[in-house]
Amino acid sequence: MSLLADRRTCMRYEVVGILRGTLEMSESVRVHNISSDGALIETSTAVPVGTTQSIQMSVVGQSTRLISRVRHVTTIGQGPTARYAVGLEFVSAPAALKASVATLLGETSAD
């Protein structure tokens, strides 16, 4: 066998049937609007409607991880530079996030 043919150092096993997995990716997104119940974000990734997504948010210096559900997706632009507006519903927003959003809205309305 040639050195270039198979350079694996670990044994590989054939999967018979279906083996499901999870791929977790991290991407910074632009938040267009936010409330204590959800947010509209802009991303380069088309996220399937109805899926549950774990997200990390930082609002007014408070960082928190929460579970959200994708409610709608709208394509912005075309081709390889297409972006997506994704509407998220927070499944269970922590009290700290709700307080941070309230503070943010209070600061915004004062302007």
Q: What is the string of helix and strand elements?
A: EEEEEH
- Give the averaged pLDDT, no decimals: 83
Count of DSSP-assigned helices: 1
Number of self-contained structural domains: 1
First and last CA, distance: 72 Å
The CATH superfamily turns out to be: predicted glycosyltransferase like domains
Quaternary form = single chain
Strand order of the largest sheet: 1-2-5-4-3
Strand tally is 5
How would a textbook summarize the main sheet?
Answer: 5 strands, antiparallel
Q: What features would you describe in this structure?
A:
The protein has 111 residues and is mainly beta. The chain has a single domain (30-110), classed as predicted glycosyltransferase like domains (Thrombin, subunit H). It has 1 helix and 5 strands. A 5-stranded antiparallel beta sheet has the order 1-2-5-4-3, with helices on one face. The longest helix has 16 residues, at 95-110. The mean pLDDT is 83.
